[in-house]
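Hey all, sorry for the wall of text incoming. These are the two entities for the joint prediction.
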Amino acid sequence: MSEYIWLIATYASIGIFALGMAVRVVRIARLPLHLRWELAPVPHERDKHEYGGSFLEEPDWWMKPRERSRMNELLFMLKEIFFLHAVRKNNRRIWPFSLAFHTGLYCLFFMACLLVASAAMSAAGYAAPAALIETPAGILGGAAYLLGSMGALGMLVLRGLDRDLRSYSGLPAYLNLAVLFVLFASGGFGMIIEDGFIGEMQRFINAAMLARPGLALYHAAAIHLGAGLFFLALLPFTSMVHFAAKFFTYHTVLWDDRRMDAAMEKEVGALLGQPVGWKSSHLGADGTKNWIDVVKGE
Amino acid sequence: MKPTRIKNISKITREPLSANEIDDLVPLPPPYDRVEDQPGWKQLTGEQREAYACDLDGVVALSLPKPKNAEEEKQVVDSFVSGLRKLLSKENNWTFLQPLTLTLDYCARCQTCAQSCPVYQESGGNEIYRPTYRSEIFRRLVKKYTKRGGALLAKLKREDIDLNWTTISRLYELSYRCTMCRRCAQACPMGLDNGLITHELRKLFSQELGWAPRELHEKGTVQQLTVGSSTGMKPAVVRDNISFMDEDLSEELGIKIETPWDVEGADVLLIHNAGEILAWPENPAAFAIILNAAGVKWTLSSEAPAYDGVNYGLFYDDFQLARIVTRHMEVAKKLGVKKVIMGECGHQHKAMMTIADRILTGNLNIPRESSLTFIEDIVASGRIALDPSRNDFPVTLHDPCNIVRNLGIVEPQRRILRKICPRFREMEPHGVNNYCCGGGGGAAIMSQHNFKDWRVSVSGRMKFRQILEAFSDSPGPEIKKYVCAPCSNCKGQIRDIFEYYGAQEKSGLTYGGLVELIVNAMPEIKTPYIKWDVT
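and here's what came out:
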C-alpha cells in the first residue's frame, strides 16, 4: 500500500484543488447581476484611462460608440500580477516581501509547467533536451525557493511583529504563510543538499503522470512535495484564492460599466420579481410582495 | 492613543471604546496649528449620555435610544442576525450580493487600504476608523452567525466576537464614520471595497431594524417622497423661490433671468439638488443664465420630486433609492424630454447615472448626462462670450467623489477652469485620486449633537489641509481665493469647515460651484457674480 501513497496523495490533492476551485469560481459567477458599482480609473477606457476618465465625460455619450481597449486592461493586469502595483503604491512596507513570495509562486508554477511538459513529452516517446527543460527548471526552482522563502518568512515575521497586521491576522493567515515557507524552504534546502533535486522532482512528475507506483522520496524532497500537495489541496479553502476572485472584483464589479441591454433587462426583470423579506415598516414588505411592488407601494 | 482591539467592540464599558482628542489629530498648517485656538467640540450633556448610545467614540451622529430592557436587546440582536442572512440572500440583496461576497471572502488583511483613508490618517491612526476595523467585525459576525459551524470555527480561529446590543449600537454609529469615498477600494490590491461594507451595514440597519439617521430618512427620503423635496419645499414653494430669485437677480445683474417650468418636449430636463435653491440660489440662477444665453430648450419640473435631484437612498437604503429615482424618471417621461441633466450634485450623479441604470427598465431609462459635460460643450462651442480676466483670482477645484472617482468625469470641469480662470491650480492629489470633502455618504447634512464637530475636524481635515496647501502661495486674507466645488453636499461640508476654522477671515477663502465662475466671466453681466462673503 505504501508504494501507492504518493500517487494517491497527488491525485487527491489535484482533485481537491480542481473541484474546490471550480466550486468557488462557479459560486461567484452564479451570483446575480448587481447594480453598477464601477470605480475610476477603468483601464478599458481607451484614451481616458490614464487620468481615470470615462465615456460619461462625453456629451450625449449614449449616441457615441464606446472606445474600449482590451490591451489597456491586459497591461493593467500584468502590472498588478507581476509587480503588485497597488501594494507598491500604497503599502511599501509589505511590498518587498509580498512581491518576493508572489514571484516565488510564479516561478514555482512555471517550473512545474516545464516539468509537466517534459513528462508529457517523455510519455509520448520524445526526450526533451536538457537545455530546454532542466536548465530553465533549475533556474526557476532556485529563484522560486530563494524568493519564496524570503518573502513568506518576511511576511510571517511582519504579521507577527507589526501591530497593524497582527491585530487582523487570525490563525489561518499564519498557517498559510507557514505552509508556504515550508514549501519554499524545503525546496531550497533540497537544492542545496541534493545534486539532482530538480531531477527527482521530474521523476516524481513522470511517475505521477504515468500512474507508476513505487516511487521513493526522502528527506527534503518528501517534505517539499508533501508541503506542495498539502498547499494545493488547502488553497481553495483559503483567502489565497484571491487570484481567482480578483478577476471578478475587477471585471464584474469595478470595471463593469455595461449599460442595460435587452438581455440584462430580462435578467433585471426576473430579479425585481423576487419576493422581499426585509422587515422594516417603511418598506411595507410582507415576504410575498416583490421588489416592484415594494418600490411602487411607498 | 490607546490601541483598540477588534473584539473590544462588544465589551460593555462606561467610557467610549476610543475617545477622540484634538491633540491626537494630525496638525494643520498655520494659522490653524494651535489646538488652543480651535473652537473645540460640543460636550454631550449627562441627559444625552443617558438617553443615547454614545460609547463608540464619544460622538453621537444618530441619537439611537438605549434599549429599555433585556427583551428589547434580544429583539435587536435577533433582527441583526436575520438582517445579516438577508444581506447574503439572492432574493433580498441581489443588488450588491456579488461585490459584497467578494469583499467578505477575499480580504488578505494587508492593511493597504488604511494608508489611503483620510479619516483614519487624519485621526492620527485611530483604530476604529481604520477601513478594515468595521469590515473585519462585520466579516467575523457574518461567518459566525450565517455559516454552518461558524461559531465553532470562530473560536478555533480566535476570531470570535460576541454579538450584543453594545456591538450592534457601536457598529451602527461606526457605519457613519466612513464617508464611502471608496479611496480604500482604489488602493486595495484585490479590488475589494470597504466602502461597500459601510453601505451594506447601513442597509441592514435601515431595511431590517428600521434604523437610519433622521436627516437621511425622515427628513430625507421620506420627506422627499411625501412632500417632494428633502428641504421640505412643496412644488408651489419651489416655484415661488425660483421666481423670486429670477426677479431679484435680474434686477441686480441687469439681465433678464427667466426659468422655464414644465415645458413638454423640452430637449433638457435640468434637475438641481433643491438644497441649492435655498442655500446657494446663485447656482440655479447661473444655470438659467448660461442655458438661456446658449439658446438651450430646457426646463425645470415643478412636479414632486423632480425638482429635487437629491437621493439619500444611495447612502443607506436600496428601496428608498429605487423609489426616488423611479419617480424622477416618471416625470421626465411625462414631459417627453430628450435627456435629463444632473445639476451640481455628486450623489445625484451617481444615483441617477450609474446605480439607476439597472433599476430603470423600459421607457424609464431616459438618457442622463452630467451638467459638467453639458456645460463644457456650451463653453467650448463659443455660444457664450467669456472674459477670463474677470476671474483673475486664485481658484482651486475640489473633485466630488461621486462624480470623479465613481463616474470618471474628470476633465470637462478642468477644461472649463483652464479656459476661464487664469490662476487655476490643482489640489494634490486630485482627479480620481482626490480626497473626500469629509461630508460624503450623507455626513454633510448630518449635524446632530457633536457630529458636526467630528466631521469638520476629523473627516474634513484632509480636505481643509489640501485647500490650504493649494493656496500656500497666498495664504493671507488679503487675497481672495475660490474653492470650486461642483457638488451641493461638498459645498455644505466646505462651508462648515470654513466656518469652524474662521477660514474666510483668516485665509480669505470662499467656495462655490462651477457655473458661478462661468457667469462671473460673462461680459454682459455688469456686476461681479461671485460674492466673497458667502457663508
